[in-house]
């Protein structure tokens, strides 16, 4: 996506790979919107830590980062012993898979790679890992473009759209899922306005989505998380579009950033269409109930404090809560299928409960479920 700084525009991917130095290159998302910086992780442990610390975040982006991390881990293996290689790669896989538990994309990305690498020599597996990671990243871009193609007609000229968290290009390799229909509508010269939920506690909407939309000159306002009900009641929201970290192919339940469920209930109450956008790598074909989805609980400090930049530009964390109080910080929630109007995928729009019926079209691969 195009980033303009000091009057100069340049295209960036959120995640890329430096083959010469075996490093994963990432946009340091914690510094946005105040500073734009690319960092490199020099080994798979650092790559996993970057996912955990949310230097890179968003389901598609951490999927591509884990894929590159697996390739990065494969490259450092010395020797030809297949058993020792398999042991090594299982450790690399586990380290990356454990970084964040809710999004399925890292698991799907790495398991697809491992299934394709299986049975090859060590040398072949090492080179295949790089090619397959690159393929995952390229597929992610293509999937998001397709989501834009199928989602764009939903945006009427003059529409007012609500989105939650950041399901933009920073949450993927490029384009984004929830933002892809918006970028396509913009390309068709449609006029529309986006409300970005602030998305406490980490403010992905205020910091990241708003920055992306500003880069693309898309009209938007940041609103506090609790304002959307009021705006819906006054007829100021026509459409809700969000992303997902894990969508259950069997039930149509959608996991996304905490607060998404609340928006879906409000949208239902006000008869406002509520759409979820997903690339194929976000579908979990295995779990049978949303209650089985591991919901990440992050540090209470994220709730008790807030990060920002002082007028001097210095980034700092400030205390915002009563010092003796404790906090809970569940990071994601699950929206039931009956609250969802449609799921926009790279192969078309489906009712949540139609995913299973259309599983062949949506990339379901029975073999993958048994791997690892
Ligand atoms: O905790 P984050 O910032 O990784 O959460 C991101 C979201 O919840 C996005 O909405 C989600 O990843 C869907 S779009 C990839």
Q: What can you tell me about this protein's structure?
A:
The protein has 372 residues and is of the alpha/beta class. The chain has 2 domains: 2-145, translation initiation factor eif-2b, domain 1 (Four Helix Bundle (Hemerythrin (Met), subunit A), Up-down Bundle), CATH 1.20.120; 149-363, Rossmann fold, CATH 3.40.50. The protein has 11 helices and 18 strands. The strands form 5 sheets. Strands 8-7-6-9-12-17-18 form a 7-stranded mixed β-sheet, with helices on both faces. A 4-stranded mixed β-sheet has the order 13-10-11-16, covered by helices on one side. Helix 1 runs antiparallel to helix 2 and helix 2 (59-75) runs antiparallel to helix 3. The longest helix has 30 residues, at 122-151. The two termini are 35 Å apart. The model has no long low-confidence stretch (mean pLDDT 97). 5-S-methyl-1-O-phosphono-5-thio-D-ribulose (MRU) is lined by residues 57-60, 165, 167, 171, 177, 204, 243-245, 256-257, 331.
